[in-house]
Automatic annotation (TrEMBL):
Protein name, entry field: tRNA-specific adenosine deaminase
Coiled coil: none
A GO molecular-function descriptor: zinc ion binding
PROSITE patterns: CYT_DCMP_DEAMINASES_1, CYT_DCMP_DEAMINASES_2
Keyword Zinc: yes
Segments for region (Disordered): 108-129
Active site: 54 (proton donor)
Record-listed E.C. numbers: 3.5.4.33
């Protein structure tokens, strides 16, 4: 299994969010080739502005491991993390973050510029799935803002 496979799993979570009327972002946490956390945006469902896909996937992974650190894990997320999620990822000490698409409106870069807010040992990279992720987001907002 590779980045493409795992990003497809994150995109599945994003499609679930889309189907639930949520901004279509999905995330998974992988450790030793096993998915240990999943999340899709649930801001509307939970009436909670912190219920982002990354936050929910991290919580699931922490609960699975019984640990607050994910140094050997990888987060796959369909859209570049926002500043709030970047803070949670910093504290998790996650080893690697792979995102499908940049988010020029709401990503951590909007507040930090190009300053890296993640743990110094965290590797950040853009991976596969950009076109599908952007199309989901575009379609979602087109349907709500004609």
């Amino acid at each position: 299994m590779d980045d493409k496979y795992y990003m497809q799993q994150a995109l599945r979570e994003a499609r679930n969010a889309f189907d639930d009327g949520e901004v279509p972002v999905g995330a998974i946490v992988v450790l030793n080739d096993k998915i240990i956390g999943r999340g899709s945006n649930q801001v509307e469902k939970l009436n909670d502005c912190t219920a982002h896909a990354e936050m929910l996937a991290l919580t699931a992974a922490f609960n699975y491991l019984g640990s607050k650190y994910l140094m050997e894990a990888t987060l796959y997320v369909t859209l570049e993390p926002c500043l709030m999620c970047a803070g949670a990822l910093y504290w998790s000490k996650i080893g690697r973050i792979v995102y499908a698409a940049r988010d020029d409106k709401h990503s951590y870069r909007k507040s930090t510029g190009e300053t890296n807010p993640f743990h110094p040992k965290t590797k950040l990279e853009q991976g596969p799935g950009e076109a599908e992720s952007l199309q989901l987001v575009k379609t979602f907002f087109e349907q709500r803002r004609p």
